[in-house]
Each structure stands twice: as structure tokens, then as C-alpha cells.
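Why do we care about 3D structure at all? Because function follows from shape, and shape follows, mostly, from sequence. That is the central idea of this module. The next example makes it concrete: a single protein chain, its amino acid sequence, and then its structure expressed as C-alpha cells.
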Amino acid sequence: MVTNNPWIWLAAFLTLACYTFPFGDNPVYRFVEHVFVGTSAGYMVTANWFNWIKPNLAEIGNGRYLLIVPFVIGILIYARYIKPIAWVSRIAIAFNLGVASGFILAKDIKPLFITQVIATFQPLDDINNILLVFGVITSLIYFLFTVEHKGAVGVAAQAGRWVMLIALGAAFGSTVMARVSLFLGRVQFLLSEWLFIVK
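And the structure:
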């Protein structure tokens, strides 16, 4: 028994088309890839129009003329496609990078830096705390390039390298498990909602 819902058939086709990639780059996969990119771009344009551009244009119409400045800066980015004035786009990009950097530093320096530094000051009465402090100190020593990595410093730097490799391996394993979870979700969709093989 198979569903007669056309949207589920479409979703099943797109899912199966994505899984043709392991057999090599092929027209079916490229078609689905283009559909995904086009749909995502269309969604983002529509969302930005209704969530940001249209409301701000209405505010400009209500007398908030200062909102013209972001529009001008945004338009300047497209100057890079006009060769004689391509350099103008650098002004907009520099402005955006400066504002974003300042905003992120002001907003995230405490939770992403100070809080993590404080979290490493742990009493050494637990194996987890000992491993945490050991990992932080040895990892920092690994990046200490003003001292030659010989003797005790070399041993600590090598230990820090292993600590980082283990951490990266754990992060990679977590990423793989997330991908497997996504794959199992799509298989469950195909077997339950499309083919009704499982409930």
C-alpha cells in the first residue's frame, strides 16, 4: 500500500534523489540540489522582504529618514559589479564587519570567553575537574610558540595536542551521529508515511 498524497510522493522523490549521490554525480541529484538551493534562496528573499525590508520602508514613509542609511550601505555592496566604482563596496563591507565585530564582542565576550575562563578554575578534588584543567593548560602550552617545545614544555605540548585530537574526534563523532539521525528520520518517513510498511 502506498499513499496517494502528491506532496508525500514529491517528498519521497526528493529524498530518494538525494540518496543517488553515492552512485556518482548525476542529473537527478543535480536537479534536486538546484531545487533545494533555489527554494532556499526564494524563501530567504521572501522572508527578508516581509520581515525587514517592507516594514522599514513603511517606517521611512512615516518620517524615520535615518533608516535610509542602512539601505544606502546595503546598496553599496552591489557596486562591486560595476568595475569603475567597485572599490565603493569595500566601504559597506568594512562598515558591516566593524559593526558586527563590535556587536558580537560586546554581546558574547562574557558568555563565550569570561565564563569559560572562570569555568576552568575548578577545585582539583574530582577526576573530571583534573582532566578539564589538565586539558586546558596543556592545550594552551601547545600554542605557546615563544618557547621551544623541548623537555617538560615539549611533553606538555604533545599532551595538549592529544587532548585537542580527542576533542576533535568526539566532535566529529557527534557530527556523524547527527547525520545518521537525519538519515534514519528520512528512512522512517519513507517506510511509514510513503509506503506504510512500518507504523
